[in-house]
Design goal:
about 425 residues; alpha+beta; Nucleotidyltransferase, domain 5; 4 domains; five-stranded mixed sheet
Amino acid sequence: MNDNTIKMLNLEHLANQIESIETVSDQNKLYFHLKFKKKEHTCPLCGTETSKVHDYQTKTITHSISTNHQCQIIYKARRYKCTTCHKVFYEHNPLAGSYETISSYTKLSVLEHLKSYTHTFTSAAQNFHISVQSVINIFDDHVEAKRRPLPRYICMDEFFTAKVSKYKYACMMIDFSTKKVIDIYATRHKHYLIECFSRIPKAERDAVKVFTIDMWDSYKEVIERCFPRARIAVDSFHVIRILNEAMKKIRLEVMRKYNKKTTSLEANDMYYYMLKKFHYFFIKNYDKIYNGKIAIPKLNTSWHKSDILGYLLSIDNQLKEAYHLKEAYSTFNKSAVYKTCDGELDRLIHQFRNHHHESFRDFGKTLKKWKNEIKNSFIYVNNRRFSNGPIESMNSRVKTIIKSANGLRNFYRMRNRIMYSLNQDIPIKYKA
């Protein structure tokens, strides 16, 4: 019976040291009364070997082996007395550290639980029958995520932190190749980042080849100052998003010309109805639009996507021209080659900058301003085009952590929590 109990408690490594163990059940709690074998101990004061027992003291240690029952070990700890200097001291406790009431096994289980970004300090407390503050203390004591060495290719982006930090946005860097979080900084403010990066050895900074960013001017300035040898590439997703916003403005201007201001969409003008109902035709990849018949309730019929697009573009010539120019850039974005893209990019910049609509002219200015960075985005490494894809996928996980941010009330703990969960290889720090 003792062997089964020892195995259940995951104490097989201590089996030869245990003298007795008894199990008591009380409602939803399990108590294990345990005593270790008597043996020689060395006096911490004079170094004399002694086996003289002075007395016994009872210690209660939380040892969570079940999520259904609270488990506690009632440990009958011996106190030995030195026969030479008369020093009284406790025997070695292999279950937990000195003055601690939570077992080392429980702490490791808590830390393993927190490796999942969907788990919280509160869920860990509920699972292992300890307080939320105890979980936070365990995490703070044993997790210290250090900055990873800078890789050759880095993705840089921000995420919203206003609810758990005095700054609105924090800055995160991801290794483009391994998708590991390199580091997280409290804010994306230019001077703060320059100060942080300046502490990194110059030789390490000079080894960075490419930074991928969104169109945040401060990032560009920081990288040019602190990483003068690195190229900067703009994430193409952000370029396309700006272009789609410009296209949206043009569609809305045309659509509003036909608005009868009725509460029923189907009762509105046909042009208004089609431009509103099929708005996604102007921003979505045509190949990804449903290829079968698409219902048009106002006409009580269904059309193929080619017929719908043809109708939409027949409404207004300027809308049609804008759509084709937008598609020209989208095609360029998919197929351009770094070494040969200059001419086509210059042609597109000229067309956008001289467009009749202000939103496309503004987009042309953006292309002109970020031309070199857009061109750099067509560089490939290991058959992968530079983008902020790796960091965008991480951002959704970061949002989950922050959304359920019980206990994340300071930046340092939040940074450790994110890096510990997302990297999965942060070593556990053991207290001396």
